């Protein structure tokens, strides 16, 4: 019980009040009233008048219950029991002043004794406690609010007092940790709730750091609850100081298990999705409404020659491809997004900035946003360049096969024709010989038979040569310095060339190698050069120019002459045929070009011809440089 | 028995020319025999005969595979010439290529001349048959 003035004056005021006593009471610094057993005011301090705002109103002789509109039952009881002798009871009473303002007063009542120790009334002292009451109400409200907040948000708070070494947990923390409401933890126990390993080490270090260096902490950690659940929490804390002196720690704890779990699940499915799209043997991308790429998979990155998607994201086709190709793609995108109809497996040709062309089977699927309009599209491209290439290789192979088949049939006819013409001659001549009487004519026929026989042998040799060329397709080709080879052939023909007054202009690139069967190359060069001289225009000396160029997979040897020229429209088909000749030339046997053609083709090449009658002929021998 | 005026042999093989000539002579069926080494020579000669109003050959033995101008190219030009008589043209070849047989059928349907297809060697009997047919027509 607080020590009050009332106690001091108690003895002094016992007995009949006097004017002096009255005056003394008037000056008491606290609001004080003396009431008699009928609860009528006998003495009051001035402070009482001012504190309760009575102004000039006369209070003396008035019942206290009349003076105060609402006296609580509690106070009434207190006052009554005070008259019975129990003293020192206090109570807080609400009071509304004239300006309707709520105020609170603490009443202290003691019995008023006369000098014979009879209770003659009550001494009441009132002290305004409005500020305190309001404060405590506010505090209560705040506490309530905090508790609500803490429960709703699941954020608990704790406080550690280093002096008492006591750790205080709020109910939310107890709930998070799954302990009873009356559980009192020690600091060590609190640490041990954290999962052994990273979590426990981290929190222990954080606490030490806070104590020693004053650093706060905020960590995502794992904890094992009293009932054995593994949970995720955000643990935060900071040191408390008073007058610069460390006095404890204060912190919060929030369970985020669900959050972490769903985060992990999202991460997992993102990883799964990423793994799937990155390992698809398809180029996959998502574009926004402006055809800018917002997602690309690894295959697409590799195709565009970048190491990470960031280099492509945000770019559109105009950044990545030529305008022509980008235009087509953009038109497709717009049409898909406008019509909301997907494109499936359309064959498209893409050329990247480095110039490499790829054939794709492209699908574009619109992505439909919440507003029912396209928010972008998903593109899937399957690289079918290999298939295309194989298809074309297969077609080439079929072409080659059917060509060879044709050649074979053709060759069979040539063989049959040649053999037949000779045997026919034999049979005819022998028939003549049988009936011939004239000796001179017999001699003549025998001469012809010998000639026919020689012709047949020559034909067989020629045919054999052709067969050899065609069966030795797998003869090893080796790189041969073309310039030097041509030079050697020209040297070996020097007599023949000089006789014809022929000039050779060897413009072959000096360090160029061709992959050929060397003997074939010699035969080819020999044939074309001698042909050029054989079929020279009589009006001018032969001039032969040798050139080279590279064209795709071929090295092209050009042999241009200024000879008679050939009417290709008329003879083109037969130019390389067996035993075909086109000029009135006794030296023409019609076998050279046929052999040459077979040799070039056996090495995987081909020959093209251009010619103008009276001007000259150019043969272009394409040597296969690829295989 | 009248004789055929002129027989023409067009072949680049001297032995064939020798043989046919020999057989014709033995048959004593024609006044003269002309020989040409290729189609070009033959068509030039026949053109000249037409231009100078000389008699053109009534029978022609024609080889297919010849340099400069082959048998088919010769036929192309020959059937365009203004010759109202039916000339007997005997293709004599050692070719058994079906393409050549097909060509023969095409040419035969394109002209009023009588074109026949024979494989070498041609025999005396065949030549006799041909010349007999000409004499009786």
Can you give a write-up of this model?
The complex is a heterodimer of chains A (627) and B (137). Chain A has 627 residues and is an alpha+beta fold. In chain A, a hairpin with a 5-residue loop joins strand 8 (217-224) and strand 9. In chain A, helix 14 packs antiparallel against helix 15, helix 15 packs parallel to helix 20 (592-602) and helix 16 packs across helix 18. Chain A is rod-shaped and about 200 Å long. Mean pLDDT of chain A is 86; it is low at 1-16. In chain B, helix 4 (98-110) links the parallel strand 4 and strand 5 (114-119). The longest helix of chain B has 14 residues, at 14-27. Chain B is built from five helices and five strands; from the N terminus they run βαβαβαβαβα. Chain B has a single domain, classed as Rossmann fold. Chain B has 137 residues and is an alpha/beta fold. A five-stranded parallel sheet of chain B has the order 2-1-3-4-5, with helices on both faces. In chain B, helix 2 runs parallel beside helix 3. At the A-B interface, helix 14 and helix 15 of A face helix 1 of B. Chain B: InterPro entries: CheY-like_superfamily (IPR011006), Sig_transdc_resp-reg_receiver (IPR001789), ST_Response_Regulator (IPR052048). Chain B: The modification 4-aspartylphosphate is found at residue 63. Chain B: It comes from Zeaxanthinibacter enoshimensis.
